[in-house]
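Protein in question reproduced for absentees:

***
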Amino acid sequence: MNDKNMVQIAPTPMQLMQAMIERGVDADQLDKMLTLQERWQANEARIAFSRALADFQASCPTIEKTRKADRYVYAPLDTVIKTIRPHLERCGLAVRFSTYMTGDTVITAVCTVTHRDGHSEVSEFAACIDDAMKVNDTQKVGSANSYAKRYALMNALNLVASDEDDDGYRASVETISKEVAATLRDELAVVDADEGKFCTWMKITSLEDMPVSRLPVAQKAIAAKKRVAK
């Protein structure tokens, strides 16, 4: 084979470090090479994660909304997970959840997406516990927990859900509950923000008309204003 046609492959930091050990380099230089090796591995894992996520999004079907609520239809968490699981496994991806409470009324779900090579990315979604629900307190928390997990997962993987086409029912956009709108209104008052201007900026007519998908944007904007006000 002609040497000119041979592809030159650059050595990895680990290969360089092994060569340095053979030459008897000092501990300082080895420590620097070890740090370089760790950075190289992290970057390779990040690249592998990005490729796997792109493959997943290319193969994952649209999630069907199969459950009806008062004003909308939606895809419950178990339906979402059942739909995406084989595609996650094929791409070497896995998801896990954790939750934490903010006060007594807000539960935040943390969805961590991990690739087999070790890189992980996190998505969070906060949901208010709906006191107006005619169920016991445990069920109210469970409902908010499932709601928060569902949106944290949908956002993490950029999933799309669509209405069923065969039942003649076309749902409106899912909007936040009256309780969540009231909480946002209170938070706007705390930071002395004009509700009308805020709604104009969010491109909605009122807080009650805010799509659920836009809630994290509103929460982040209010949190940023709180930090500035301190």
